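Page 42, continued from yesterday. The earlier attempt failed because a stray header line got pasted into the input along with the sequence. Redoing it now with the clean sequence only.
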Amino acid sequence: MYYLIVYDVNKKRVAKVHKTLIGYMHWIQNSVFEGELTPATQLELRGKLNKIIKSEEDSIIIFELGEHNYRAKKILGIEKSPIDQFL
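This time it went through. Structure tokens are written below.
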């Protein structure tokens, strides 16, 4: 499955999150990564990220991408700007 990950984390943890994601995905711009992950690898990565962030302060959004749009959205931590629909 192809994923897009975006994050907004405290500056104390941003380098750790970035370094962790670099090991799994392609860095496409500040706080944004994309890439192919197996289901097991995606769960492994989520576990590592959950250990780094503080869920009451930080936000990581993981989009599962289909061919033309995302299929599901998983949020680790707080959702800063909830939306009902993604265009």
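Notes: The longest strand covers residues 70-77.
Reminder to self: strip header lines before submitting.
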